[in-house]
Specification:
Layout: H1 16-21, E1 31-35, H2 39-50, E2 54-58, H3 62-69, H4 80-89, E3 93-96, H5 99-104, E4 108-111, H6 126-139, E5 146-150, H7 158-171, E6 179-183, H8 193-198, E7 202-207, H9 210-219, E8 226-230, H10 232-262, H11 267-276, H12 298-311, H13 317-320, H14 322-338, E9 344-348, H15 363-373, E10 377-381, H16 387-391, H17 397-405, H18 410-416, E11 419-422, H19 427-436, E12 442-444, H20 450-453, E13 458-460
Helix pairs in contact: 2-4, 6-7, 10-11, 14-15, 18-19
Bound molecules: nicotinamide-adenine-dinucleotide.
């Protein structure tokens, strides 16, 4: 069906000179309508035209449409005017307010209209609803397959639960059969938007179905960056998570800067060194959801930073909220256990992480402490736990009882308890849990393998 995706081959009419300027994939003259000629839509329009596609930009704002048709971009963005003028000269771009016709004349529709915040912080998707209605009306008159790519930032579930039903209702057609939908977030940054379009950090394609996702991948085959195919909801959420992460990085660096200045340390010297560490700092390390942090260093040193912030009279909300966040994660895991039936619980792994005997500030021990006060009958298994290592932990009455809770045989522990809590991800535990996963509730703090995760009574702490 991919062949149906071509318009007439205009490349044959190109002069040799023009063809030199275009990329190989541009022989496929797919027509693309792009809704919203704002910061994203205007740049995306000229960039797809750069790649040889026929683009029709659609906006409600007549001034923007008129401006674009006359080579005047509606926004300030480096290179945009040159790329627009090239697109107009090559007859690859026009702008219009005639939304339905634009869809009828094209094979793909990209939607990049505004999704601003409401006063309560929720995302206002009114413009997306209106565009979806228009797409539906146009599709009711179309006989060929049409691909719709939503690019505006939205919360997860919006495309599947709100936008697709609007299109289906207005068109009388079925998503996945008569038309395809993907959520395909945009990662461009204003000021470097054209470069970012052609060399994105990644191309994320959340497909309603596999066919729509494959067509979308084709559209981007000559754009740099990894193509990541995923669910609609993951694609929607990635953009929120990315932006929240970027905001967190800025706020963290600024808090470090304020603290450094107060301590008379050069913040640039510190952060230069920090950023050079691609192994632990700027990497995927410590970035996968799982158990709360613990051990002898992280909690202690974060508290040290909090102390310094107080000492210098600084307001550092990001740094000061870290311990609170970690405790909330531990409480969440305790609540998950509490929601299960049964009073006999067994922990597989209790030291602060697998492969060490260090009990200092083990988040699992913190959970044991809370559950013990709640009256649970607790057993633990950990090959590295010894009376000495338990004694090295934070002074606590419960900790001294830990050796009494210890069961030497993990299989026996699993047999005897009502609920199994997995604190360490060792191959032995994984094998064992494949046996027990269909028999007993499992609370997973470490993300076990797929077989265990698919068991009926399985709960992951944050997945
Ligand atoms: N600005 C960025 O750098 C950036 C980057 C990535 C993602 N995003 C997301 O992309 C989306 C668009 O952002 P933007 O900054 O380009 O917004 P924008 O406000 O600059 O542009 C949106 C455009 O959509 C038009 N529009 C509204 N309703 C319409 C309709 N029914 N039909 C046709 N056009 C319509 C508006 O007139 C406006 O020109 C948002 O969801 C935003 O969060 C923005």
């Amino acid at each position: 069906m991919l062949e149906n995706f071509s318009l007439q081959n205009e490349a044959q009419n190109e002069t040799a000179n023009e063809r030199d300027l275009i990329l190989p994939s541009q022989d496929r003259r797919v027509g693309i309508s792009i809704f919203g000629l704002g910061y994203v839509g205007a740049v995306t329009s000229v960039c797809f035209a750069d790649m040889g596609y026929k683009v029709i930009g659609v906006d409600l704002d007549e001034k923007k449409v008129l401006g674009m048709n006359n080579g005047i971009p509606p926004i300030v963005e480096e290179g945009l005017m040159d790329h627009l003028s090239l697109a107009l000269n090559r007859n690859r771009f026009k702008a219009t307010t005639e939304a339905v016709n634009a869809i009828l004349e094209t094979d793909v529709t990209l939607v990049s209209v505004c999704t601003p915040s409401r006063e309560d912080g929720s995302c206002n998707i009114d413009c997306l609803r209106a565009v979806s209605e228009t797409i539906g009306q146009a599709l009711s008159r179309k006989t060929t397959y049409h691909l719709v790519l939503f690019r505006s930032t939205v919360p997860p579930g919006t495309t599947r639960n709100i936008l697709i039903p609007i299109i289906e209702e207005a068109s009388g057609k079925k998503c996945g059969e008569d038309f395809g939908v993907c959520f395909n977030p945009e990662f461009l940054r204003e000021t470097t938007a054209i470069r970012d379009f052609h060399q994105p950090p990644k191309t994320v394609i959340g497909g309603y179905d596999d066919y729509a996702a494959r067509l979308t991948s084709k559209l981007y085959e000559n754009v740099g960056g990894n193509i990541c195919c995923c669910s609609l909801e993951a694609a929607e959420f990635v953009k929120y998570i990315d932006n929240t992460w970027h905001a967190l990085k800025v706020s963290f660096a600024n808090e470090v800067g304020r603290l450094c200045k107060a301590a008379d340390v050069d913040s640039y010297e510190v952060m230069d060194i920090f950023c050079q560490d691609r192994k632990l700092n700027i990497s995927e390390k410590y970035l996968m959801p799982g158990t709360a942090f613990g051990g002898s260093c992280l909690p202690k040193d974060v508290r040290g930073m909090q102390y310094l912030s107080d000492k210098y009279g600084l307001d550092l909300p990001v740094i000061n909220s870290i311990i609170h966040s970690n405790n909330a994660h531990i409480t969440h895991a305790v609540d998950l256990i509490h929601a299960q039936e049964g009073r006999k619980i067994g922990f597989l792994g209790v030291t602060f992480k697998s492969g060490t005997d260090d009990m200092r500030e083990s988040p699992i021990f913190n959970m044991i402490e809370q559950l013990s006060y709640m009256g649970y009958d607790i057993s633990v298994h950990d090959d590295n736990l010894s009376v000495e290592s338990a004694a090295k932990g934070y002074g606590s009455k419960i900790l001294s009882k830990l050796p009494d809770m210890q069961v030497k045989n993990a299989f026996r522990l699993c047999e005897e308890v009502d609920i199994i809590i997995v604190g360490h991800s060792t191959p032995d535990y994984q094998d064992l849990l494949e046996v027990f996963s269909c028999k007993k509730p499992i609370i997973d703090l470490v993300r076990l393998n797929k077989t265990c995760r698919s068991a009926k009574k399985y709960s992951g702490v944050c997945w």
